[in-house]
Amino acid sequence: MSRLGGGSLLLAWQLKGKHVLIVGGGDVASGRVESVLAADARVTLISPSNGLHTLTKSFLNGSYNITYHDRLFGGVEDLANVDLVLTAIDDVVQSRVICCLCRELKIPVNVADIPESCDFYFGSQIRDGPLQIMISTNGNSPKLANIIRKKVEQSLPEHAGDAITRVGELRVKLKERAPGVGGAVGKRRMRWMIDVCTSWEMEELALLDDQMIRRLLDDGWEKNAVPSPGELGVRPSRQAFEAKPNLIAPGVFIMTSSFIAGAACAGLFLLVRRR
Fold first, then answer.
1. Which residues participate in catalysis according to the annotation?
2. How many CB atoms are located within 10 Å of the residue 127 CB?
3. pLDDT tens digits, 190-209
4. What integer pLDDT is reported at residue 126 of this predicted model?
5. Which of 35, 147, 181, 189 has a CA 20 to 30 Å removed from the CA of 218?
6. Distance between CA atoms of residues 92 and 114, nearest Å
7. Cα–Cα distance between 258 and 37 in angstroms, integer?
């Protein structure tokens, strides 16, 4: 076990509806814009138009929640009512000025390529629908984070994102049938969802449709049982169970599948406790 200390607190920050200021419009800034738009943030972008990356322009031309100012950062007035600031500009001095202003105003800030001016790091990310995984080197080596991300991504089972989506829908339907927070019902609900997640393969969960979810609740939850996929007519193709060839050792695939199943169960446990 590695010693405690020296790390970061990894969180899934909920930015929906929050106001994010991005200063810069180049290659790095375009990635920042994409990341916060994916989190449903309200974005203000400040950058001269002659420095805009092609991807940044495509976001500005699309139907996204972005307010654009074709100019340089103007000072503290640009930070009014801002929840989060991201800078990605070549001017190191200006970047440090923005960082100091943000810290005076208690606004979390990330300054690209200056780790000591960052309240948080982006890391290298994997996304498959609701599944998000971040690899962070705590600012030490973004390139190695990217290399590790690719190895992790190759080891993930196919259809993981679809499986999580369908399990989420099953969980919502289950809470409609068995409402309540905590208590005996909450514990039984958590235990049953864990049993479903660990009894079914990832690819089988991904094939659940609305009718199968109803049957799973009728024949499973109501009878305190977990029907097998075959009993509900789930027939994944043989190819769906095959790992991607020549990418990683078989042991890594098994470990990763177990990790995701365990993570899903742990997440369900925490959600029940939180509510």
1. 113
2. 13
3. 999 999 999 999 999 999 99
4. 92
5. 181
6. 8
7. 31
Tokens of 24: 């810069």
Write the secondary structure of the chain as one string of H (helix), E (strand) and C (coil): CCCCCCCCCCCCCCCCCCEEEEECCCHHHHHHHHHHHHCCCEEEEECCHHHCCHHHHHHHHCCCCEEEECCCCCCHHHHCCCCEEEECCCCHHHHHHHHHHHHHCCCCEEECCCHHHCCCCCCEEEEECCEEEEECCCCCCHHHHHHHHHHHHHHCCCCHHHHHHHHHHHHHHHHHHCCCCCHHHHHHHHHHHHHHHHHCCHHHHHCCCHHHHHHHHHHHHCCCCCCCHHHHCCCCCHHHHCCCCCCCCHHHHHHHHHHHHHHHHHHHHHHHHHC
Quote the CA–CA distance of 111 and 115 in Å, as a whole number. Answer: 7
State pTM to two decimals.
Answer: 0.72
8 A C-beta contact, residue 18 and residue 42:
yes
Task: Give the number of other CB atoms < 10 A from CB of residue 137.
Answer: 16
